[in-house]
Amino acid sequence: MGQGLSAVALLATSAWLISRSTEVTSIIYLSLAVVGVRAFAVGRAGLRYAEKLVQHDSAFRLLSRLRVSLFRQLVPVGETVLTKLSSGIALRRFVEDVNEVQNLSLRVVAPLVQATVVNLAASIFVMFLAPWAGFTLLVLGQSSIIIGFVLGAKSVEKSHREGAGAKDALSAASLEFAESSEIISSFGWRGHYSEIMEKADQQQAKASISAARVSAFAQALFQTLLFASIVTSAVLGALVVSDSADLGVWLAAICLIPFALFDVISVSQNTGSAWHKFKQSQNRIMDLVYGGSDHTHPRESGSHGFEAENETRFESIEFRAVSLGYPNSEEQIVTGLDFRIGSGESWALTGPSGVGKTTIALAMARLIPIKSGSLLLNGKPIDSIQELSFRKLVGLVEQRPMIFSGSVRQNLLLAKPEATDEELISVLNRVNLWDVFRERDGLNTKLGEFGQRISGGEAQRIGLARAFLANFGLIILDEPSASLDKSSAELLIRDVLRAAENSGCSVLLITHDSDLAKLPTFEVAFGTNSIVSRIR
């Protein structure tokens, strides 16, 4: 805003200085104006830099808060979201949408506010010299802001409506062709894919041309309004000067101010397109998170009327007539679930694939809400517990633990950043993994991207080591033997149960292997239709 006002003031002062210099014989009468021109010139550049610095800093801060907030919103619907983002195109668009949201303040609000304020200030100044010229300038300037916004939004909307499907089709066909070119060529489908891509490209080009016409019309209208403001300012200003000779030196300023003003207003001409893109991104993010349902985050629901409580130790977790299903879906995967895990107990949850074992794990880890019934932690509703407190008590080790590119030390410190090397070595010993890494490079052993330099069993043990290092009261193991042979799987489970017993930790082992299910002390078995068939 400051740089816009400086730009208008610079041109007005310069115009007055030139006009006034023809009437005086000594420069001393012009000293203040000369200093003003220099100050406004420096101020324009300096304020422009300062405004960009402040705007981008605020936008990046907003984006950081947005990413954290969005991640927290995605936690309860994680499985549903991952299904929607299974394709590379959808995932890329989601990332772009999140980044696009920051543009609301940067490319919409700031330019509109600056253009409106500068237009108002410049018009009021002209009104003091030539009232009707100032009023006309105000109307034409504000009209250009509004028309530019509306036509800009219309241009992007038209392009999206006519070309969005073509863009997705072109991206999908190109990606599929690149990934499966040999198969496509061998079956003679190359011509079919070429036809799809050519048709999509033509449709996209047609949409771009149509949108460009709207954009060109907006630019032509903007230039017309600029020309009209200059002509009316000159005519109305001349009429005022003819009635008052003292205002003669201001005629040049009255005529030239529209140039500087519309230069500032021109920045707002892209706000309409930026606004439409923001709304599209916002709608896609909201649809992804909420999917049109009334789902709310457990921390915000207040369904049990409890204030968030802090729990420092794990005593029990209990299902009472619980029904489960995924968010944004009416289907119930598990119904009538009743069992309780106490402190220090080891349980097995077994049954064929598809009966809802992983769904139970996600609910216990507070990653999806229950449909009905009660899920209690230490005798209290699970959503009445502070989330940070809950995360310190219950941990989930997935089938394929996430291994980050880096060293063993870096991967373990994710669970406990302040842990010493002695603690890391101790926890690796508890999962029988230290001897493996000691022969390599110890804690500095590089694991590779996604754990490419280690076996599936070693990756599983690192996930377990992180869980023990975090000192959870309950560790949920979701099919930990999926990538192991039978003997290795049995050895792993025995090691885990032994380490858990020594630390007083409770364990829930989720497996479809009936032999592994016999290792824990208790068992919950599922039959057909997700009905509990046995509790021993």
Provide the domain count.
Answer: 2
- Overall shape: it is elongated
What is the helix/strand order?
A: HHHHHHHHHHHEEEHEEHEHHHHEHEEE
Unreliable runs: 292-307
Number of helices: 18
Main beta sheet, described?
Answer: 6 strands, mixed
Name the CATH homologous superfamily of the largest domain. Answer: ABC transporter type 1, transmembrane domain
Average pLDDT, rounded to a whole number, is 78
Work out the number of β strands: 10
Widest beta sheet: strand line-up: 6-7-8-3-9-10
Look at the helices and sheets and give the structural class. Answer: alpha/beta
User: Rg, please?
Assistant: 34 Å
How far apart are the first and last residues' alpha carbons, in Å? 73 Å
Amount of beta strand: 5-15%
**CATH architecture identity of the largest domain:** Up-down Bundle
Considering DSSP H and I runs of 4 or more, what fraction of the residues is helical?
55-70%
Can you describe this structure in just a few lines?
Helix content is 61%, strand content 10%.
Please outline the helices and strands:
Blueprint: H1 2-21, H2 31-74, H3 78-84, H4 88-101, H5 103-129, H6 131-179, H7 181-186, H8 190-243, H9 251-265, H10 271-290, H11 298-301, E1 316-324, E2 334-342, E3 346-350, H12 357-364, E4 372-377, E5 380-381, H13 387-391, E6 394-397, H14 408-413, H15 421-430, H16 434-438, H17 456-469, E7 474-478, H18 486-503, E8 506-511, E9 522-526, E10 532-535
Helix pairs in contact: 1-2, 1-5, 1-9, 4-10, 5-6, 5-9, 5-10, 6-8, 6-9, 6-10, 8-9, 15-17, 17-18
